[in-house]
Give the backbone structure.
Amino acid sequence: MGAAGAARRAARRLRGGLAAGLCALLAACASVPDAPSGTAEGAFSRGGRFAITMTETSGQQQAVQGGFTWRDDGRRYQLDLTNPLGSTEARVEGGPGHATLTKADGTVLQASSPDALVEEALGSPVPVSGLRDWLRGQVADDAPAGKLQRDGQGRPVSFEQDGWQARLSRYDDLGPGLLVLQRTEPGRRIVVRLAVSQP
């Protein structure tokens, strides 16, 4: 009973840390300026639900889910994450050569790339930099892509890039409505699922 209770408490702490960090990867905090209005050329926004699952080789699994909003004015982007109850947990903002992560408690972290920030906060990689292109249904041109497959309209439906296997589907006029991203690392497998529900 004692060991099982401790294991459950540890799992809850891990899920809470993942949720806070993950959401820290996207949430809109009051201390952070509002996102660009989205009227500039190249502006882009998407929103919906996310789910992240980490499976250890032992079979132990942790999962976190919530909502996300991506805003991009063509120069800088902002990713907000909310928990399942709709509360903002964190925000990631980035531009050329810099990124800032603001947590719900007001803690601010900075790095040269959003991926480094997220991995430091979550202990798990999330391809924030790749999402800037992938959410548009594009393959990023700053890194080689392998096993690229396209549909009849020339849109990418599966590829490998930056260590991630990506599957894009349910396209609308702006991009894929569903992104499933997988990464295998020593001792664990990470699956990130983004389901778009609004432009």
